[in-house]
Amino acid sequence: MQSTARLTRGCAPLLLRHTYCCIVARPDRHLFSSGAAAQLRRKQQSQQAPKGFQHVLRASATTTAPVLEKQEIEMAAPQPKYRKDYKPTPYLIEHVHLDFLLNEDKSTVKSKLHMTPNYGDASTPPKLELDGRKDIDLVSVSVNGSALADKDYERTDKKLSISNLPKGSFDLEITVGIKPQENTSLEGLYKSGGNFCTQCEAEGFRGITYFLDRPDVMSKYTTRIEADAKSYPVLLGNGNLLEQGCASEGRHYALWEDPFPKPCYLFALVAGDLALSEDVFKTMSGRDVTLRIYTEAKDIDRVSWAMESLKQAMKWDEETFGLEYDLDLFNIVAVSDFNMGAMENKSLNIFNSRLVIASPSTSTDLDYSRVEGVVAHEYFHNWTGNRVTCRDWFQLTLKEGLTVFRDQEFSSDMNSRPVKRIDDVSRLRTAQFTEDAGSMAHPIRPDSYIKMDNFYTLTVYEKGAEIVRLYRTLLGKDGFRKGMDLYFKRHDGQAVTCDDFRNAMADANDKDLSSFAAWYGQAGTPQVKVSPSYDASARTLTLKVSQNIPATPGQSQKEPVPIPLAVGLLAADGSDMPLHLQGEAGESGTTKVLLVEKASQEFVFTEVAEKPVLSALRDFSAPVKLQVEGQTDEELAFLLGHDSDPFCRWEAGQTLLRALLTKLYNAAKQQKESKLEDRLAAAGGVPETVSDAMGALLTSKELDGMFIAAGISLPAAAELIGSIPNIDPLLLHNVRKYVVQQLAARLRPQLEAVVKQNESAAGDTFVPGDFDQAAKRALKNKALGYLSALDDPRVSADLLERARSATNMTDQIAAVAGLCDSDCPERKTALEEFYKQWKDDSLVMLKWIGLQAGANVPGNLKNVEKLMEHPAFSITNPNACYSLFLSFLRSSVNFHAADGSGYKFIGDSVLKVDKINRQVAARIVSSSAFTALKDYDPERAQMMREQLSRISAENGLSENVFEIVSKSLES
Ligand code: ARG
Ligand code: ZN
């Protein structure tokens, strides 16, 4: 998610011949002139400025920054694009031939585009407007072989417009010069670790050459890549290798052809010195596909897990959806400088190295499962994204929501389904629900954006996946498969919309799914209330269900959405009761999916023999916040002990803990005189219902360790922020810490026993993907985490010993992490030793940075500032930035320090990073509490606002950061 823009390099000769009117009408131009004309422009522009921009104008009036200069920048406020304005392009590009001459100083890109008219029967061919960037050096443009005259084209910072075009189809040839080695935004063509690579989604291709950079322009590509043979022995493109050979002066070339039409965001190129690991996959129709993974030579012996995952994913997609790979070669390239996780370029996936490289001694179990999930995700895009793509970027969830759903299902089938569901729901709840309640809240299909990169969000991805899951819940596995089949049958080779997907699901199942449109158009998390009442004489259970979606920026009124609510009823012995829904013939099994479509509705179960305990939202059947009226702690403990639905079982424990944390927080907040501990004890402390329930879970023989570890984890602070008004995050942190310490003290014998029982035997070898082993590690390390909260020197000594003797990274990092939040001598030793052991492994160093930056020891900010100067940290590397800044954001004690120092540090860092990499800078602000400042206590909210104003006042701020900051200032 992120501006290079502000790097001034290699500007082309200016071709501006605009009148003043043109300038005003073209919001994408940067205006830095002054004088009367500028003032007039300013006036007109501010009248048309988007809301966010107007706010910045207001904010600037209250600051003392140099006003005139600032206004000059504000005038050029970026304009949003709207979904409602979608229009097809007047031209399509049938075929693209690209010729790259890669060099150390300036690289040349020649493109030959076979253009076809798409403007109907207009008598004069319209203007062709190609997207570009101001740092592209335009060398030549010709149409059908003749160079264009000056009057036939014009160039602005973002466009190349060509007029007087011939009727019918024509060939357009453009030659440009670019400097990948200076590209620190990591969009378009850039260098990572000395190699050339690309990232074009969403709108990076326009940084490579002038083009119709939008997903509904699908073309067949051939690509010729030429570079020095010694420095860049590997030359990769999309599709099949047609030809390779020597060129002059020690150079060589490769010619690639991709037979499938694709939008330019799926274009990729790699040129470098890379090692390779190869394997073969036999497809269901018996074709052999060559699979290759490329990395720097030092990492090539750590790709076997990624390769294994790829083969599993290919097989799974054949078995589950009947989808086979469509070429004879599939390449993955790992690069260490990458803004996101990975990219599904046709047959040439490019990955952030942290999602390819894995070994037991350097990667945790979590790293292994991420590699598996993301390798699968990118592979699955070949059908959901590449063969069928998006008409415009507003439809991003069409491919991302669906592909996340697919990778979730794949991981569930490879590992434990309940644990995967719990992990996914936790992530949704801690991060997406927060986004959906903050200043950047948007529907899964947004209505507008300034920078598309800001919309690769948890909402589009994770909530989008939940919406896809709704169809599966409602239509069943077979119904969903029928819908998928029809979707591919209708739309293979097309660029389509979310409505097309919904229609395929509906038509294949002969169902009216039109009400589901509301899920695509509305932001905000629905709040669902269920009130059960049992009538013993009538033997009925009535469920009153109501829903409410809170207002979000720009959407004050909401309509109800269709919510599949899966419920079950538990008898006193803990068994599931058979269900009979009034108005339906026969029995409905033991789980019934109720479809809640109205603001409030009633459902009646009949033949209910005894007063049941309600188990609601089984398997988290919809992305909502559920409240069951009148539910007691005893009922929750009962569900935690007995529910046959593993998600609800886990959720009962979480609800119990959330309620406890909320109660204790409120008590602590009220009477501030005495010591916190005394206040919390006076409020009842941790009741036995809770510690007994946790103890029972901890010692359960029937449940697996991974599930137990999730069950005894306290809900994240992020789950409570927003539900408690004007929260003091430091107090919440201390209340959480108190609960952890109380539980640890009370359950100490059980925790210690669990550690012993789950210790891996000496000589055990780590088997990647072995669930039982991973489950043991998860439970043991969770127990150690609790024990570490006791601040007992014996525990610290034990953790240090574990950090030293660990034979795998999961155990090693858990031990070091256990020491990180306490100011004991072992902390320092453990961190130093860890550094010595791993300083040459940049991926492990990311963990080392993250552990320190996220620590909750008071006054840690100065250490974090020092870390920024450490050789292990590099501000131009996105992974290092994420490890440092995003971890720091999670430290309640230091980020939320009462003196505002944490906020200022993030404000400074965003500005610094923005000059290097706008996507990374935007990701830092959008992950911060700055986008949810209204949830915090007034003093903190004000300090956050000050940082936002300061950022917004910055000269040359990227559009990416501008969009987030201006929206946050508005909220
Ligand atoms: N399509 C990629 C994936 O999810 C992510 C690309 C992200 N690009 C961006 N500019 N945010 O698999
Ligand atoms: Zn994706």
Automatic annotation (TrEMBL):
Pfam families: DUF3458, DUF3458_C, Peptidase_M1, Peptidase_M1_N. InterPro entries: Aminopeptidase_N-like_N (IPR045357), Aminopeptidase_N-like_N_sf (IPR042097), PepN_Ig-like_sf (IPR038438), Peptidase_M1 (IPR001930), Peptidase_M1_dom (IPR014782), Peptidase_M1_pepN (IPR012779), Peptidase_M1_pepN_C (IPR024601), Peptidase_M1_pepN_C_sf (IPR037144). Coiled coil: none annotated. CDD domains: M1_APN. Residues 633-970 form the Peptidase M1 alanyl aminopeptidase C-terminal domain. Residues 524-628 form the Peptidase M1 alanyl aminopeptidase Ig-like fold domain. Residues 305-517 form the Peptidase M1 membrane alanine aminopeptidase domain. Residues 140-266 form the Aminopeptidase N-like N-terminal domain. Belongs to the peptidase M1 family. This is G9747 protein. The lineage of its organism: Eukaryota, Viridiplantae, Chlorophyta, core chlorophytes, Trebouxiophyceae. The gene is g9747.
